[in-house]
Amino acid sequence: MASDLLNIGSSGLLAQQKMLATTSSNISNVSTEGYSRQNTLVYSNENTLGVGNSYTRRLIDTYAQSEVWRDTATYNQVNTTYTELSQLDKYLSNSATSLSDSIDSFFTAMQAANTSPNTTSARQGLMGQISIITDRFQSVSTQLTQQNDDINGKISTDLSSVNSTLKAISDLNDKIVKTAGTSDDGTRENLLDQRDQLIKQLSEKMDIRTVSQSNGSTLVNLNTGESLVLAGSYAQLSSVSGNPDPKNTGIQVSQGSATFTLNNKTLGGTLGGYFSARDTITETQREVGQLALSFSDAMNTQNKQGMTLNNTLGGDLFNVAASAGLPSSTNAGTGSVTMSVIAGQGSKVPPNDFKVVNNGASYDVYMIDASSGAATKLASMTPVKTLADYGLQLNPATPPATLAVNDSFLLQPARGAAGSITKVITDSSDLALASPLKISAVASNTGSATSSLSVQDFTNPSFTPIASLFNSSPITLKASAPASITMTAAGYIVKNASGGVLGTSSSATNILANALGTAPGFDISLSGTAKIGDSFTLSFNKNGFSDNSNGLKLAALQTTDLVRKGASDATDNKMTFNEAFTTTLTGVGTTVNGLNTSLSAANTKLTQSQEMYDSVAGVNLDEEAANLVRFQQAYAASAKVISAARDVFDTLLSAVK
Asked: How many CA within 13 A on the CB side of residue 650?
């Protein structure tokens, strides 16, 4: 009997000692990240009295744990996207860096120059604003490019962390398998905690799914099914340059001898957030570049409709480099392709990228949807290589033999435009604020009619460049150009410099359009009373320094719809320069506000799932303290049993003596 009591007491003492150790470990690890509460289960001895086997286990809710991992990925994706785009929103909306403020300042200076078109000071003020707006476009482009490059760098850094985590998870899986079923001191449970904590860290980087194995190991897959951790092996991820755009980096997965590229849009976690933010930044680059193209082309085209202080026709104010095609890595040829804006057609340019494929007989041109990336075929061009509907000119390699069949190129006419814009004009006298034409009444006129001349709006479909009406040296009206208007009984007769009749108008308004069927870059109207025989002559506006006719046309561009609304073909598919930038800024701001709301929701959901998980796996100090007292008492009672067994044994020995 004493022997039985000794065995019973010893088994109880050892069992309570294990439960005390487990409780003490819980209390000690109350602040340890990733630690799951443990308890020791004991079983009665099947053969004798007392305690038999014991088993230490983790107390976790695997469903809640999976929810935590998924919610962690969602929160980190939204938070990363929000953080990156908040920087972009602050930069674009800052008055010190805003394109909208620069555009307003430019046109304010233009109005000042129109007030005194023959003074150097007013012109110099406008020259200064030309430099400022050029620098502003370049600065915005540089900032967007830098943020894009920074994100690519952060992606590479995250991938290094992911690779280390995947290796560590695989190593812990191996250790867990080796200790499975042999540990009764919490060692195996601690390994499981370490492994699961690494999985949670991995879920911060990407959205993952796990599959538990019967041997205690866990397989890790992406949410789209690609394997990251398998039995005895793990994947390694690397950043790879985009094809054909090297800045459009992607993620390549290597698993043994197999490699594949991940879909950036389904990654989740911080990596998914970086790619999402980068997409928005790229879209913003295109829209800002589109604005730069439309602005510079409009200013150039209108300035060339005027006359400078040097009695010459105006020239370009800005230059935007042609977009160089990015060749596909599979190209067999050595040729190149560029794309540029057709002069005067900048308002037609969309913010989209284009793809050009040499099919041998012609060039297939595709427009790429900014959102989906889908390519829509526009035309097969040969020999004409203009996209008239989009204001773009394709410039293939010469000779064509340098291009191989199926060679393809990515063309980004809008994306890099803001960064390539430069100031062409260097002398304020080259600002063409005056009209190149003047109309004068013949001295012998007997009527009271007065004339007004209007240079055609270059956005008019019937627009004819004013330069086409003049001889170059010396600058005079061509013999074929309208040179005089005379009132007769039959109407207003339009003649050229040689006296040839070009046509007759019955109306005194828009005489040239009525007489010729279309206005050759300008038109003339009469007001008042004209008498038969009255004539008006047209000539080059030499020394018309105080004239601001073309300057007013330049200023009017501020409120003219000259920027295309995406790739829309709708009737109302244009907007002003300020509206274009405001649309871009509003789009970014709306995205940021939406992300802020989503971030609060994601944080709330993550908190709920974490609390659900902690309700089972978290250490409750009050509960552990109660267990500690209970197990201490049980330990002391077991010791008493051993003491009682010893007393019984001593009594028996005394009785024998």
From this structure: 6
* β-bridge mates for residue 453, sequence order: 524
Residues 94 and 588: beta-carbon distance below 8 Å: no
Q: Which residues, 6+ apart, have CB-to-CB distance to 310 below 8 Å? A: 429, 430
**DSSP label at 309?**
T
Q: Are strands 318-319 and 422-423 parallel, antiparallel or unpaired?
A: antiparallel
Question: 169, exposed or middle or buried, with CB in 10 Å at 0-12, 13-18, 19+?
Answer: buried
DSSP string, 574-607: EE-HHHHHHHHHHHHHHHHHHHHHHHHHHHHHHH
Instruction: Please report where in the chains the tokens 């400022």 appear, as a residue.
Output: 132
- Integer Cα distance of 657 and 254 in angstroms: 82
Q: At what angle do helices 120-179 and 187-205 cross, to 10 degrees?
A: 160
Length of the chain: 657
Q: How far apart are CA 476 and CA 497, in angstroms?
A: 10
Task: Tell me the C-alpha distance between 340 and 335, whole Å.
Answer: 17
Nearest CA-CA partner of 521 in 481, 463, 566, 575: 463
Torsion angles phi and psi, residue 196, rounded to 5: -65, -30
Using DSSP's 3-state secondary structure scheme, residue 405 falls into coil
Place of tokens 């053969």: 47
pLDDT at 182 over 70: no
- Tokens representing 349? 């340019």
d(CA 654, CA 657): 5
Classified as helix, coil or strand, 393 is strand
Coil, helix or strand for 338? Answer: strand
How does DSSP classify residue 389? G
- Which residue pairs, CB below 8 angstroms and at least 24 apart, start in 604-608? 605/71, 605/74, 605/75, 606/68, 606/71, 606/72, 606/74, 606/75
Task: Output the CA torsion 584→588→590→593 (10° steps).
Answer: -160
Contact 24, 606 (CB under 8 A): no
With 0-12 / 13-18 / 19 or more C-beta atoms within 10 angstroms meaning exposed / middle / buried, residue 616 is middle
Q: Is the pTM of this model over 0.85?
A: yes
Backbone angles phi, psi at 579, to 5 degrees: -65, -35
- Residues 550 and 435: beta-carbon distance below 8 Å: yes
Beta-carbon count within 10 A of 57 CB: 16
The reply to whether omega before 413 is within 30° of 0 (cis) is: no
pLDDT in tens, 484-539: 999 999 899 999 988 899 999 999 999 988 998 876 777 889 999 999 999 999 98
Number of H helices, E strands in the chain: 11, 31
Peptide bond into 399 cis (omega under 30): yes
With 0-12 / 13-18 / 19 or more C-beta atoms within 10 angstroms meaning exposed / middle / buried, residue 537 is middle
Alpha-carbon separation of residue 479 from 370, 471, 495, 538 (angstroms): 50, 9, 10, 12
Quote the pLDDT of residue 1.
46
Interval 285-306: pLDDT, tens: 999 999 999 999 999 999 998 9
Residue 188 is predicted with a pLDDT of: 87
**pLDDT range class, residue 478, cuts 50, 70, 90:** confident
* C-alpha span between 603 and 609 (Å, rounded): 10
| The amino acid at 555 | A
Q: Which residues lie closer than 8 Å to 460 by C-beta, 6 or more apart?
A: none
The confidence score (pLDDT) of residue 181 equals: 63
Partnered with residue 380 across adjacent β-strands are 364
Q: Please tell me the distance from the alpha carbon of residue 417 to that of residue 437, in angstroms, as a whole number.
A: 34
Cα separation of 316 and 108, whole Å? 20
